[in-house]
Amino acid sequence: MIGSASLSETIAASGYAVVEDVLSQNTVTELLAAMEQMGDNGGVRKRGGIFAVRNLLDVSPEVMKLANSDALRELVAPILGVEFFPVRGILFDKIPDANWTVPWHQDLTIAVKDRVEAEGFGPWSTKAGVLHVQPPASVLEHMITVRLHLDDCGEENGALRVIPGSHLHGRIPEEDIPAMRSGPDVVCTVGRGGALLMRPLLLHASSPSRVPAHRRVVHLDFA
Fold first, then answer.
1. pTM surpassing 0.85?
2. What is the pLDDT of residue 2?
3. Distance (Å, rounded) from C-alpha 197 to C-alpha 98?
4. How many of the other CB atoms lie within 10 Å of CB of 64?
5. Which residue of 14, 86, 181, 188 has the smallest Cβ count within 10 Å?
6. What is the percentage of the chain residues whose pLDDT exceeds 70?
7. In 69-82, which positions are buried (b, 16+ CB within 10 angstroms) versus exposed (e)?
8. Is it the case that residue 209 has pLDDT exceeding 80?
9. 71, 23 in Cβ contact below 8 A?
10. What is residue 40's predicted lDDT score, i.e. its pLDDT?
11. Helix axes 70-80, 4-14, angle to 10 degrees
12. In what order do the strands lie in the sheet with 49-53?
């Protein structure tokens, strides 16, 4: 595992880092069993398989426990400090019936409890019953996303691609994103039980899976 100082430095410079073996194989198996038991609660199903759940922290006690676990604290505390907390959990899966392309973008919205009008916050939206808003870039710059992989994830099954250092440019207007892609992108291959840590403002994208297999990811945002 990357040392905490090196991890913090890598994310500060590149905007992302891959850390393998964050979760034990037993923990991954237990999480997959919990996902299967969720049924339609908060999820969208395609032929019996949940492929997207946007309010994961609310509907899965197992994921909430994981978000506050020692394993996650060891990853996140060197980056955000010891007073961080989880603010959103999402489950993603790419299966033959839900195998989409994600264009280059930054993650610009956060989940919030209540609507309070404040300068620099907006527009507002509701996703799966959860209130979201686009905050100032300064808020996003002090957040980190941890994507925990419940399956091996390589280029053939829709691994995330990122542009290193793009998080340093703040909030990038959509029309300026093509120019930011002039440099090489990196495919973030992650093994089962591994994690991809990334800043929300890092430009990222993914391609459809080319193999008929799951690519289940628990996406956790921390502030």
1. yes
2. 60
3. 24
4. 16
5. 181
6. 86
7. eeebeebbebbbee
8. no
9. yes
10. 57
11. 60
12. 16-19, 195-198, 144-149, 217-222, 86-92, 49-53, 43-46
Measuring CA to CA, how many Å separate 72 from each of 61, 68, 218? 15, 7, 12
Q: Does position 223 have pLDDT exceeding 50, yes or no? A: yes
Q: Which of the listed CATH numbers 3.40.50.720, 2.60.120.620, 2.60.40.1840, 2.20.25.10 matches domain 4-102+140-222?
A: 2.60.120.620
φ/ψ (deg, to 5) at 20: -85, 160
* Most distant pair of Cα atoms in the chain: their distance: 46
pLDDT top residue among 156 and 196: 196
Flag the least confident range among 41-50, 184-193, 212-221: 41-50
Side-chain half-sphere CA neighbours of 108 within 13 A: 17
Domains in the chain: boundaries: 4-102+140-222
Query: In terms of C-beta density within 10 A (0-12 exposed, 13-18 middle, 19 or more buried), how is residue 198 classed?
Result: buried
- How confident is the model over 121-143, as a mean pLDDT? 94
Rounded Cα distance between 147 and 157, Å, is 15
DSSP class of residue 168 equals G
